[in-house]
């Protein structure tokens, strides 16, 4: 369908790096495991990323949605309130899981470029709950923030929010599906970026290009309980040694890789700015570029016109198109997208 097209719809389209494919093939020739965390590749992956991110333990799970939902189940009881910035994935694309699997209510607070200001959180905690409201149990940050265009959370905000949570007896989870991009863009370690959090989720299959899977990270006790929750959700997947082997190579090969995506995202945005002016929005922090369609022009229609020119973009809502940079998008594809957008919109 998308053969030959420049596919900007998602960093899921990055494809699997050669080193990861080779590692998968080698691991696929070994004896499979029983699934009780006894696979050497899975253990290596979980240890490697626990160390990178500064957590005691990690668990390899099929999707980042599942990593998030296990965290919700462990930190909250049904009916509890979770506080997050407006537009978070947990309250948007993932909302049905959040309601159906965890049974929690997400309160979306005012966001600044997708992120929660410490004073906004403090005001929400100080404000009167409605009669019958359960107490807020968990604060939920997303870094980078997808819907805001891959924006990076200001480090001092995250630290201060961590302090507020500790004082108020709340837990803090970071949906770090794309925390790798924040790591590449800021030069900070994952451990520094996630220091304030009690738990963290990371996608392995987006810009990194692992074949599948995500990680949930936390304390040793938290991960022991996560193992049980994963089982109740029918997600004790096995054998997964060959997937973990591919993921290890994808993690190891990320240095430089993501920086290229960020450079091309800035190039793409500069081209859009030149062609469209303010519709191109602000310059990207990482690998996501959002474009507003002109009043009266539906994003879906523009996406169709772009598709005919061999450029695939994802409508996020009626008036916003998303372009995500990844390993299969080179400089020529960026130039092609700028040209196609100029013809379709300008
Ligand atoms: C993609 C994404 C998820 C969910 O990941 P899946 O592996 O598709 O379930 C969660 N949070 C954010 C911010 C995402 O972008």
TrEMBL record:
> What keywords does the record list, in alphabetical order?
Aminotransferase, Pyridoxal phosphate, Transferase
Q: Does the keyword Transferase apply?
A: yes
Name what cofactor the protein needs. pyridoxal 5'-phosphate
The record's listing under SUPFAM superfamilies reads: PLP-dependent transferases
Q: Does the keyword GTP-binding apply?
A: no
Domain named Aromatic amino acid beta-eliminating lyase/threonine aldolase: residues: 7-291
What the entry lists under InterPro entries is as follows: ArAA_b-elim_lyase/Thr_aldolase, Low_specificity_L-TA-like, PyrdxlP-dep_Trfase, PyrdxlP-dep_Trfase_major, PyrdxlP-dep_Trfase_small
Molecular function (GO) terms for this protein are: transaminase activity
- By its UniProt entry, which Pfam families does this protein fall under? Beta_elim_lyase
Family the UniProt entry places it in: Belongs to the threonine aldolase family.
Tell me, how does this one assemble? Homotetramer.
What is the name listed in the Swiss-Prot or TrEMBL entry for this protein? Answer: Aminotransferase class I/II-fold pyridoxal phosphate-dependent enzyme
Organism encoding this protein: Plastoroseomonas hellenica
